[in-house]
Amino acid sequence: MKLGLIWGYWGALPPSNLVETTKLAEDLGFDSVWSAEAWGSDAFSPLAYLAAHTSRIKLATSVVQLAARTPTATAMHAMTLDHLSGGRLILGLGVSGPQVVEGWYGRPYRKPLARTREYVEIIRRVLAREGPLEFHGEFHDHPYRGPDSMGLGKPLKSITHPLRREIPIFLGAEGPKNVAMAAEIADGWIPLYYSPYRQEVYRDSLVGAKQGFEIPAMCNLTVTDDIEAGLYPVKAALGFYIGGMGAKGKNFHTDLMARMGFEAEAYKIQDLFFEGRRDEAIAMVPDRFADEISLVGPAERIKERLEAWKESPVTTLTMYPSSPEQMRLAAELVLGS
Question: Which CATH number fits domain 2-219+298-335: 3.10.620.30, 3.40.50.1820, 3.40.50.720, 3.20.20.30?
Answer without folding.
Answer: 3.20.20.30
